[in-house]
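Hi W., the pyridoxal-5'-phosphate complex you wanted:
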Amino acid sequence: MTQVPFLDLQQLHSEIRDSLEAAARRVLDSNHFILGPEVEAFEMEFAQYCGVGHCVGVGNGLDALHLLLRAHEVGPGDEVLVPSNTFIATWLAVSQCGATPVPVEPLAQTYNINPDALAAALTPRTRAIIPVHLYGQPADMDPINAFAQRHGLVVIEDAAQSHGALYKGRRAGGLGDSAATSFYPGKNLGALGDGGAVLTNDASIAGKVRLLRNYGSRVKYEHPSIGYNTRLDEMQAAFLRVKLGFLDSWNFQRRELASRYTTQLLDSGLGLPWVPDWATPAWHLYVVRSPRRDALRAHLEKHGIHTIVHYPTPPHRQACYPEYSHLSLSLTETLASEVLSLPFFPALTEQQLQQVVTAITLFGHADQRP
Ligand SMILES: *Cc1c(COP(=O)(O)O)cnc(C)c1O
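Structure:
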């Protein structure tokens, strides 16, 4: 039986292998490995791509969020509104600052933070909101920004899954006060290792993150602030520059595949992704919903089709957050038990897609037998 992988990076990289090897050789020959010309060039190119004034490369997406919160001076005693339905990094960054994540439930249609639920979570301690563009679908930023403006809050986008996504024609990463993103290899724009970046139009925030990522230092051996060591390295920046050139065409392929899946699964009985008319998602993942998710997943596995659950346990149910365990966040908990991410990557072939659709159809038929 042919296997359908969840993600085939090897296939993706084989198309651009020569360029990646040339980039690696260029860095090796330059003998410059940390904070050099590749990082500088990538920061300019990615800032331009996202339509923002500044990009600062850092070690990973979690650190990008953490350093941004620090740069915005979020700290102990502060509360930050976060989606209850997100990858745990969004929460961890808040906790790392000594601030408190306050969960807000999503919209049932988009799985993204519900702007109408922000008011109930607001307290005098609230300092910031971190909307996440989950699965590559932009959060509804206009009402979020309006709410933030009314209450003097900072808006930090978690744009780790949304490279290239558009909200009302504007790119994710330039929709709030600042944004954090990740170049983890599996993201739409992925490095060949860890990487991340901060995006902002605010020169002072960008400057603070530049200090914080590099031991709190701008001039070597001078340390005005207590910083960290979390830099995007030259090798990863060189790889990212190659891959940035393909991002739009890969995202186009993702859109085509998503539309193929949606058309073919209309009668499957599964909950399918719903896209508001103002959104052009980056389609990081193609996520379906079923109350019989675990049985469906096992069935697909038997047919050689590999799927992943993003995410099986929400942050408020994690052992590291015992103080949240009494909370009942029913939509988030339902989603965690029902979502399933189908095989999805730009190089997915029509044949592979058909194999997935056929197996899902078989599951539906088996389901209807008495
Ligand atoms: C991947 C991801 C992160 C963290 O990025 P890393 O580079 O893995 O630290 C943060 N938030 C979301 C939503 C993510 O998907």
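The pocket of pyridoxal-5'-phosphate is lined by residues 60-62, 86-87, 89-90, 132, 158, 160-161, 182, 184, 194, 196 (CB under 6 Å).

W.
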